[in-house]
Design brief:
The complex is a heterodimer of chains A (156) and B (377). Chain A contains three helices and eight strands. Helices cover 21% and strands 31% of the residues of chain A. With 377 residues, chain B is of the alpha+beta class. Chain B has two domains: 2-45, no CATH class; 53-375, Cytochrome-c3 Hydrogenase, chain B. Chain B is built from 16 helices and nine strands. In chain B, the strands form three sheets. Chain B has a four-stranded antiparallel beta sheet. In chain B, helix 6 (130-151) runs antiparallel to helix 7. The chains are: A alpha/beta (156), B alpha+beta (377).
Chain lengths: 156, 377
Amino acid sequence: MRTLLKKLESDFGQAVTIKKFGRSDQFVVEIEAEKLVEIATWLRMQEAFRMDFLENLSLFESKGKTVFSYFLRSGSQGLQLVLRTSLATPNGGARLEIPSILGVWSHAESFESEAEKMFGVHFSGENRASSVRKNFGLGDEYPLRKSFEWGDRVEL
Amino acid sequence: MIYTREKLHASVSSLSWGPSDPSLPGIFRLEADAEGDLIRRARIETGFLHKGLEKSLEKRSWFTSMIAVDRVDPEAPLFAELAFCIAIEEICNIQVPRRAQVIRLILCELGRVGSHLHFLARAAIATGFDTASQYILRDRELVLDLFELMTGRRFSPNFFKFGGVGADITEGFIERIHETTRLLEIRLREYHALMIENQAFIDRLAWQGVLSAETAQSKGLTGPSARASGLRFDVRKDEAYSGYEHFDFRVPLGTGARGTTGDGFDRIVVRLEEIRESLLILSHAVDSVPAGDFLALTTPPDFTVPAGEAYSRVESPRGLLSCHVVSDGGAHPVRVQWRTPSSSNIEVVPEVLKGITIQDFPVILASFDLSIAEIDR
């Protein structure tokens, strides 16, 4: 893993910041959103490491920012890495915009479609063609944003 | 089933099932364009019974969060409990006693057996083998009895705690596990004769709903459905947790024994084989429960998790189940996010349904063991 991270640093320089992920042995690579597709493609295509499995896309909102964490796994090497970027959370119902990584990992669709409905994210640059539609019937309300109003809705 | 006007005037019919339909494995809508009897295109819509669990967890205290976690997959609730506990324990740096780890492993393998038996019963009903389904459901009761004996509950056990489990092994539990595993091993041979060696059953599933390893990989499929297509990934082996590394077990893969690798028949056989492996793990595990505590600490109602984050993975009966927990040190989680296997596994279904006949779609759907509750979490 350290070899991969060194190569990543040498190829992308200050565009990447590498940190430990919590208490685990994993690393998190923080990048700017505009570099997302380029760095994701680099990680996917590295012959020796080949991060070919996007295991998860998790979003959370903290301190006015929406943080996108892409949990990656190399099927052949068993290596794991978290690719992370963040965007300022817009006010009201305005949508966030971030490049789609569907062209890098085709199975990203189920994660992106959930994030779209739950966090109000527009994933740009790729056409969605999935035949599975996740419809939560909330229109322009994005329930996983901190600004979401519960209103008359009742918790379980 | 609703027939639309196209059915009357054109060779292509638009058909729609659900959201509530007995031929579907849950509450969702399936729309298909069919030419005669053949499905040419299928679409799926989910979200009709979304529970909003992840949002609900943002309001709950850490102490009461397990009640909501249990509902991620009501049919196999312990796996979500375990993933959540592992993540919290990592953030809090809690060392789980070895005894508690083995108890967790025993209950999870029991949960896998129970979930796979329920799957087999549903598959038997979908293929018209109602007699087999009755036998299987009878035997699943034995597993639920064991849950009741150990946790006090047959469903939603809410039994795993941060740092261990809610109670020690109850009197007679180990003897009952031995008794049940011996009986189920005999029953598995009966299911084999009733279903796997039955030509009528083979005809319904072999060569049907074939999913290649390449498609399974490109769609991010995990679990027994992926292993039936030849993908070996199993979190228990590839990234052992809760002491799985101390147990020797096989990861069954699809072989195309009666048709081709990755067909509906392989998805049934792999799960049947997984039950056998789980029974082996169970008989070894109950004989090797170490002495010691079953809980590292007692969490008070105002328990808080320090600022930080963790990501855990477990192998649920349907595949890779992972949990991302973020805390800012406050009274409630900032975020608890689940990666549930069915959310990814459902993506292959429209692809697999192309080219099959309308009468076969309930069988193919059943062979994927989707949990709509996991998707609408």
